[in-house]
Amino acid sequence: MNHVVWSLACFYLLAVPFLDSAFASEVKSSNLGVDIISLNGKWQLLNSNSSVSLSAEVPGCVHTALQRQGFISDPYYRFNDLAYRWISLDNWTYTTSFTVPTHVREKGKAVLVFEGVDTVSTISLNGVTIGKTDNMFRRYDFEVTEFLKDEENILQVWIMSAVTYASQRSHAHTEYRVPPDCPPPVQKGECHVNFIRKAQSSFSWDWGPSFPTLGIWKEVRLEFFNTLRVLSYTTSPKYDSEHSSWNVEVELFIDVFVATKGLVHLSIPLLQSEAEFQLSLTPGQSKNSFVLQINQSVSLWWPFGHGEQALYDLTIDVKLEGGETFSAEQMVAFRTVELVQEPIPSSPGLSFYFRINGKPVFLKGSNWIPAHAFQDQVTTDMITILLRSAQKANMNALRVWGGGVYEQDIFYSLCDMYGIMIWQDFMFACALYPTEKDFIQTVREEVTQQVRRLKSHPSVVIWSGNNENEAAIATDWFNIPVAERPLYVKDYVNLYVENIRDIVLQEDSTRPFLVSSPTNGVESEKEGWVAKDPYDPHYGDTHYYNYYNDCWDWTAFPRTRFASEYGFQSWPSFSTLSKVSQSTDWDFSSNFSAHRQHHADGNQQMLKQAELHYILPNSTDPVQRYRDTIYVTQVMQAQCVKIQTEFYRHSRSEIVEGEGHTMGTLYWQLNDIWQGPSWSSVEFGGKWKMLHYWATDFYAPLLSVGVEDKGDLLIYAISDSHSEQHSVKAKVKLYSWSSFSAVCSLESNVTTIKAGSTLVFQHPISALLTQCGNCTRRSCIAVFHLSSPEGQMISPHNHIFLSSPRYAEGLKKPNITFTVNGTGDAQSFFVTLHCTFPAVYVWLDVDDIPGHFDVNGFLMLSKKATVIFGAWRPTTADEITANLHITSLRDVY
Ligand SMILES: *[C@@H]1O[C@H](CO)[C@@H](O)[C@H](O)[C@H]1NC(C)=O
Ligand SMILES: *[C@@H]1O[C@H](CO)[C@@H](O)[C@H](O)[C@H]1NC(C)=O
Ligand SMILES: *[C@@H]1O[C@H](CO)[C@@H](O)[C@H](O)[C@H]1NC(C)=O
Ligand SMILES: *[C@@H]1O[C@H](CO)[C@@H](O)[C@H](O)[C@H]1NC(C)=O
Ligand SMILES: *[C@@H]1O[C@H](CO)[C@@H](O)[C@H](O)[C@H]1NC(C)=O
Ligand SMILES: *[C@@H]1O[C@H](CO)[C@@H](O)[C@H](O)[C@H]1NC(C)=O
Ligand SMILES: *[C@@H]1O[C@H](CO)[C@@H](O)[C@H](O)[C@H]1NC(C)=O
Ligand SMILES: *[C@@H]1O[C@H](CO)[C@@H](O)[C@H](O)[C@H]1NC(C)=O
Ligand SMILES: *[C@@H]1O[C@H](CO)[C@@H](O)[C@H](O)[C@H]1NC(C)=O
């Protein structure tokens, strides 16, 4: 980390060691004379009839506490999500006690700060109710000056079952229904989650369990002050195109008890920029804005693959007339972002792409879901592994999907450093929402707080109001009679446009806002915010799923402007599943396999899609067959997402029948919430599926893509780079399944390409096969890459099957053997492979040894190949040898 954000909370966190039981008078005198007492640590936890009593960590949740104290075993194990349902149906009370030294208590104002309560709670101090919460996405500050005692204080947080609350709120909403009532039965979830401001996926999703958590999931502390305290601050660089210079707007949000004056000093030492401002404060909460002009040229922040991620430190120093001081350091990065929606020649509709620092940038990435059902268990390491994995796969963007949580600060700081652009949804998904006054009010506060928390991050490039709720109304997911529709549209506009959009536009002018995803953007706005067809490929973004079509048939994909969701399921690896299952579960038709699958017909869809092109495993050893089936689902998923993504990448420069100019691909989904089948490319625990390895190639900055179109083999050269031109030629070889030498080689003429896609090779396949003498569609495969005019390889190897591998002629069991040797570094190893016959989709799996290979799931068209395993912890060649399983397509039948 090359920057540190110092805030009051952060300062205290670092300075105060773990505290046990009653929080004795551990007080820190910090900036501006604010004293802070942390209430993190061990609290007492009790269920409603007092049959369960235990100590519980804060921040934390009830499930985690029960598990850590041995009351329950791993909630993810087998069918435990059902067995532990009672936890979420009960109400729970957290209790702690603390003392406050007299000199601290005598300060003018005391505030109890909850950074996050999950979710519905009543909070009492020394028996007096001091506040209530109903939104896990908000921070709550309660003034407690009058309620503190000199002796021991008792703080209680009574948390009501989220399931009970949602149900009561839904039943209280009698005028009209707000669907959906319940998730589909296959999800085994709870009902009415749209009535509670809580991670919507916590009541189950089609990739995750139902664990409607309860807890105090973020920090708790007391703040004492005589004059004022700083609540938060933001920094927003703004480009002044008239003067070709940058201004940094700094906002200080201050809670003032006694009127005062002071000076604010801002500086960015690296840019020799500084300025001083007068501060004049009256009691109450206020926003104070200052603008620091930058008179020097700055290094811009670029998305990964497009340049550096330049980050600067800005220091904020406040000095009050009473002598108290405050100082903080905040990271600043300079970049502009525009969402361009304008007419395209020869196409109806409008473009939809991001312009970063004035350059069009193709967004390559995926969608992010919560990394754990129990958010208190999400560690910095877990987030780092996932984001590093995204960057290693050449991703430059992730969408933080609207059914989960606004991620923790470190997530966005890492994205700033890695150059990963964030499409940030507000947390509303796949439902209609109520618009009662108190609901709107709590959402307004949530949105204000989250925008202020996240707007300083350059990685956040867009806000989006919700996930799929425009589509839900437009395409009538919930059987709403036509006559009632205007009522729902009115609620929709009220929530997302008149409230959320309104606040975002007021709070942040440095990035675009979209009301929904998918949406037609400005066209949806014209149509009253709910377009007739939000999936229209001529406008905005689209989500597209089709499991029954053959995914090799690219003609079925919408040639969209921006693909923000698409994907296919697969099962995670055997080693990941075996942590939550037992041997009786290891069968594709076991109760466990059915239970874990939360998407109706999902297991059948995977096999049917796989069967179109691959022979399904038929080992007589059931565990081997189970492992092989997992492998085949991963092959299917990787191949399907590859074909669809490559289609979108080469559609970047094309308009076909009015469709095209695709400028973004975010496949569904990057990560997993537990060990189960899903659309993810990285498993729970961080292990890469085959898809993730392949993403490294299909997201390469310079890529060749092969497509069969009307009997011709087309090869496109695709480049992301807007600054360079490349002279390239495509080199194409045909290999027969029965030999290791290419049966023929061709190459294209040299073509100069720039950002976008260029057709560099076109040849009728029948002529190719004839030219190659002995080749048929079934006996040969075409492999290709781009090279420089001098013949140097400049893009990853790619290939295209000329018929399904299930009909491959001459493909034999490859008999792959291996040796592992060290490189001298305990985290890096060579694996040398030998095979007797060419092999398809060679897959190396080292069970639980964390790390990843440099390539995996590859074609092996030579007798020998060497791959490198990079471990995330020290290991040995022997350990790898003992755990390595190698599978290829021909090995499973
Ligand atoms: C107390 O609550 C627990 C957990 O909800 C429940 O299993 C138990 O039956 C209850 N006991 C009584 C006496 O109601
Ligand atoms: C939890 O609290 C609610 C609201 O007071 C109540 O209706 C419900 O019965 C309580 N549940 C249990 C298990 O005590
Ligand atoms: C930048 O230039 C403006 C106008 O010339 C000047 O007022 C300001 O003091 C300069 N700022 C810094 C930080 O040097
Ligand atoms: C699978 O579940 C069904 C229905 O719950 C049950 O009857 C059956 O015994 C279970 N089978 C196994 C092998 O556990
Ligand atoms: C390469 O260029 C030559 C000369 O312009 C042309 O005759 C030939 O058809 C081209 N070859 C291919 C494969 O496009
Ligand atoms: C073509 O196939 C025949 C029969 O399999 C074989 O004898 C011959 O060597 C092959 N020719 C080439 C050019 O590979
Ligand atoms: C498999 O490979 C090993 C080692 O390369 C070799 O000794 C053996 O003969 C091969 N087996 C077959 C059936 O080809
Ligand atoms: C390990 O394997 C690599 C690749 O096959 C080889 O180049 C290297 O010499 C080997 N090192 C040792 C110590 O055997
Ligand atoms: C599995 O299927 C293959 C191809 O159809 C067949 O050759 C093989 O005998 C089958 N194996 C078993 C164990 O049924």
Question: What key phrases describe this protein's structure?
Answer:
5 domains, TIM Barrel, alpha+beta, 33% strand, 6-stranded parallel beta sheet, Jelly Rolls, Immunoglobulin-like, binds 2-acetamido-2-deoxy-beta-D-glucopyranose, 19 helices, disordered N terminus, 893 residues, 52 strands
Can you describe what's shown?
The protein is an alpha+beta fold and 893 residues long. It has five domains: 2-161 and 212-222, Galactose-binding domain-like (Jelly Rolls, Sandwich), CATH 2.60.120.260; 228-323, Immunoglobulins (Immunoglobulin-like, Sandwich), CATH 2.60.40; 363-698, Glycosidases (TIM Barrel); 702-807, Immunoglobulin-like; 817-892, Immunoglobulin-like (Sandwich). It is 21% helix and 33% strand. The chain is built from 19 helices and 52 strands. It has a six-stranded antiparallel sheet, covered by helices on one side. A six-stranded parallel sheet has the order 32-31-30-29-28-37. A five-stranded antiparallel sheet has the order 1-2-15-7-10, with helices on one face. The chain is globular. The model is unreliable at 1-25 (pLDDT under 50).
